[in-house]
Design brief:
heterodimer; A: 333 residues; Rossmann fold; 14 strands; 23% strand; globular; B: 229 residues; Serine Threonine Protein Phosphatase 5, Tetratricopeptide repeat
């Protein structure tokens, strides 16, 4: 294992210390239990937005804490759901009297821990709603599984709901909006290489030099199929066609296209992917009106990418364009 | 010199005290330590490869907590301390599930300083009911339930059939072991392994494996002749 770390067991704590030192203007970091909170929280009268998940997906979620996006993030151990006491602390810290929305990625651990946290917060008379993001078309959606995983759409939901909360919209509306984003977003990812969880010290899975895994999860969970490496245009087809056909996205639709790097893939390759994606969508009459390109929901040092498409309307477009000021995503009005 | 009759007598355990329960918790911690690699590798095959690491972190925290709590707690409170500690330190799916298991066990025997074999069976039953309520898994879903339920049923059947507590615990652990091995061909329907669909078949479930360790630790800890001075 070659990593820029001191000790594997200290990675998350030291990362958080680094974030606290780097972004004191945006966030304050609480240790034991670990919570990243917007510096001016709680904002009175505003719905608080809390998300969280295992570490190793940076900048998600801690890098999205700040005005216009999340009010708090709960970082777990690497690839491990955070715990209910972290989520309860975060919920209390951001409760400005208008209630708190938990944005939860659909993983069994995350869902159960957030459920316990919501029960605990209810016991302290804080109104909590939770929305589960499950946008990964690589996974069969079935009553007999844990359902689809939450991936790229999470980033878009946090941005859009953050903007709505900033406008002062009530909890029920922000939660509905979050469900709307989830209902209109679809993703799929792929890996060229595995990743190494620091505490494990070796690759989560093995991939041959000439192989790729289509439908990979953000924790290195195996995907739909393992196949020989192919040109970028074919990879885009493998990812985008199932996405387009699932919603389905249709001719005349306007979309936000999000090409995400898994952590170990350079931007030059993400733009190659984006170029092929524009051609594929053009051919189907789908117009990209907004885009996001870069590593935003990563999987440690995994090389690879994911594609997320979100069907836009005027409301979603306006909220996407609203100003945001976080370590990971930042633009003015 | 102890004669045979006396040693037979000593090995017939009728109840569990605070110390016994603590020894079981420690033994589970030792088992998790010893099997950390195996649990992690099983998890890497079908999940995200952190089960052994998470359980070890949780059980280390548990041992510190129960040492600090001392012996003033009754057994119910001791089990609840274990549960709360697991909930706040394990994370993943294992935290809420194992945390709930111990919390519900603790509530089932609240206030007790001694557990009869039937108390133990009732605690296990309540714990498993809690795990099912939290995780919504049914037998055959390829989860920890697939070791726990056979373990619970074998325990109850053995006790009902008049077996000694030691024999009942052994049958419970063996049934959990069989249930664990029986997860190999199953297709996962809960948890991260369910994302694999058919590809989850052929792998032993890591949660069932750690749950077998839990019941195996009980059989080994309480099945030995009681320590005498």
């Amino acid at each position: 294992m070659k990593k820029l770390i001191n000790k594997p067991e200290d990675v998350v704590t030291e990362e958080l210390q680094g974030i606290a030192a780097a972004h004191a203007d945006l966030v304050r970091v609480q240790f034991n239990p670990h919570v990243i909170v917007r510096a001016d929280a709680p904002v009175q009268g505003k719905v608080g937005l809390v998300s969280g998940g295992g570490s190793g997906h940076e900048p998600m979620h801690g890098g999205f804490v700040g005005p216009g996006m999340l009010d708090a993030a709960c970082p777990g151990e690497v690839f491990t759901s955070p715990t209910p006491d972290q989520m309860l602390d975060a919920t209390k810290a951001v409760n400005g009297g208008a209630g708190v929305l938990h944005i939860v990625k659909n993983y069994t651990g995350d869902v159960m821990n957030f459920e316990m946290a919501a029960e605990l917060a209810g016991g302290e008379s804080i109104e909590v709603q939770a929305v589960v993001i499950d946008d990964d078309v690589a996974v069969q959606d079935s009553l007999y599984t844990a359902g689809r995983r939450g991936v790229g759409t999470t980033v878009l939901a946090e941005k859009i709901c953050g903007a709505a909360a900033e406008e002062g919209r009530p909890l029920a509306e922000v939660a509905d909006l979050c469900r709307k984003v989830n209902a209109n977003g679809r993703s799929m990812g792929m890996a060229l290489t595995s990743c190494i969880v620091p505490a494990a010290g070796k690759p989560t899975f093995e991939l041959g030099d000439d192989e790729m895994e289509i439908g990979i999860g953000i924790h290195g969970e195996p995907g739909r199929e393992r196949m020989k490496l192919a040109p970028a245009s074919e990879i885009v087809e493998k990812l985008a066609v199932p996405i387009v056909e699932d919603l389905p996205f249709e001719s005349g639709d306007q979309v936000l296209a999000f090409v995400n790097g898994m952590g170990g893939t350079p931007l030059i390759e993400l733009y190659v992917i984006y170029n092929d994606l524009t051609k594929l969508l053009d051919g189907r009459g789908i117009t990209i009106t907004r885009n996001l390109i870069g590593p935003y929901i990563t999987s440690l040092e995994m090389a690879g990418c994911s594609i997320t498409l979100l069907k836009l309307d005027d409301e979603l477009t306006r909220l996407w364009d609203a100003p945001v000021k976080t370590a990971g995503l930042r633009w003015a009005a | 010199m102890v004669d045979v009759a006396e040693s037979e007598q000593a090995s017939r355990r009728m109840s569990l005290g605070h110390d016994d329960v603590l020894r079981w918790i420690r033994a589970f911690g030792t088992e998790v330590d010893a099997n950390k690699e195996q649990l992690t590798q099983l998890d890497a095959a079908v999940g995200d490869g952190d089960h052994g690491i998470n359980m070890q972190r949780g059980m280390s925290a548990v041992l510190v907590k129960v040492d600090a709590a001392g012996e003033e707690q009754d057994i119910g409170a001791l089990l609840k301390t274990v549960g709360m500690t697991l909930v706040s330190t394990v994370g993943g799916a294992g935290g809420p599930l194992y945390g709930t298991l111990f919390l519900q066990m603790g509530m089932a025997v609240a206030g007790k300083d001694e557990l009869s074999p039937d108390d133990w069976a009732a605690a296990l039953e309540a714990g498993i009911a809690g795990v099912q309520a939290r995780g919504k898994a049914e037998p055959g879903d390829k989860t920890m339930i697939d070791a726990l339920i056979p373990g619970r049923d074998a325990l109850k059947a053995a006790l009902a059939g008049g077996a000694s507590f030691e024999d009942a615990l052994r049958q419970s652990a063996d049934a959990a072991g069989q249930g664990m091995r029986d997860t190999v061909p199953l297709v996962a329907r809960k948890g991260r392994a369910s994302y694999l669909g058919e590809r989850s078949a052929g792998h032993q479930d890591p949660g069932a494996t750690s749950s077998h360790l839990l019941l195996e630790a009980a059989a080994e800890t309480w099945g030995e002749p009681e320590q005498t001075g």
